[in-house]
Amino acid sequence: MIKVNCEIKIVESISKYNKEINEKIRKGTLDRPERGIVMTPETFSKVFSPERIKLLKRIYRNNVKNIYQLAKELDKPYEVVFRNIKYLEGIGLIKITEKDNRKIPNIGCRLSIDMFAGGIEA
Q: What is the pTM of this model?
């Protein structure tokens, strides 16, 4: 599996960030296209709950055979683990592959978090 970079930028205000990006586009000073996920600290804390962080760490560190095994290792109901994996898959952090009727979660990207992004420099 080829892993792509997945950058998460934490900003004070999404609307302020969008205005700054649009201004840079209008002026032609945007060096490269912005890619990744932009979120506020409040959203970040909801997306990366302690439970989801444990889940990501377990998938990253171990050779997870399937979601059922992962739920058993974490001592969590299958439905809870599956729902969290589907959520993380939806934002591009996890990829699910199917093999012999088993759903196998993998980390889908190299994660980079910019926690000090107060704004965009001109």
A: 0.72
Q: Which residues contact 49 (CB under 8 A, 6 or more apart)?
A: none
Exposed / middle / buried, residue 59 (Cβ in 10 Å: 0-12, 13-18, 19+)? buried
The answer to whether 122 and 18 are in contact (CB under 8 A) is no
Structure confidence at residue 76 (pLDDT): 93
Q: For residues 107 and 89, what is the distance between their CA atoms, to the nearest angstrom? A: 9
Domains of the chain: residue spans and CATH: 4-114 (1.10.10.10)
User: What residues in the chain have per-residue pLDDT under 50?
Assistant: 1-2, 118-122
Q: Which amino acid is at 9?
A: K
Do 111 and 95 contact (CB within 8 A), yes or no? no
